[in-house]
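Homework help board

Subject: predicted structure for assignment chain

Our instructor gave us this sequence and asked us to write out the predicted structure in token form, then describe one feature. I got the tokens but I'm not sure how to describe them. Can anyone check?
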Amino acid sequence: MTDLTLFYGTMECGKTTKLLQDNFNYRKHGHKVLIIKPLIDTKGGNTVINRTNDSANVDILLGSEDSIFDDNYISLIKNTEVILVDEAQFLSEKQIIEFWMLAHEVGITVICYALKSDFRGRLFPGTEALIGFSDRKNELTVNCKCGETAVFNARKVNGRFVYDGDIVAIDGDNDVSYVPLCSTCYLNEVINKEEKDKVIEYKRILKR
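My token output:
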């Protein structure tokens, strides 16, 4: 039986490296593989690229309103055995359901690689849909700078942590970068002063 599988985690946990390894392994055994990523992800252009500059060409750049069943994609999908989807957090719920249908109705193995949450700790809509529809879920992890397991994608702009801004800001564009942090480091370095003051007051009240 073919499945929809999800690999998820924070920045730098190896999602794209996992995709590239899976791509190599499937092709080595003679499987026809299709690589897809959302059009909104401009990093790497028409390639998927990891942090050590390994890369693979993308077959479909999927627009936010596109359907994988659009006529211009059908010929590419025909006879495909495996679909690998990078940066799947940017997909819509409708697109996730279409990939799920490809797995279960058409018989194509679909593997998605996604960030779990945005820089504020909220689930991306695409990841939320994947958690609901994927048959297999696998968390990839990386350590925070303090050594604990990172669970947040902290955003920096011009080298400074920020707590507000647009949900989508691509790593490397407009002086934006991301740092994987554990909860303690995220609370200490990212949460704004107003929120920190609330936490301090809660602690004061609870310790009375």
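Reply (TA_rk): Your tokens look well-formed. For the description, you could write something like this. The chain has six helices and eleven strands. That's the kind of observation they're looking for.
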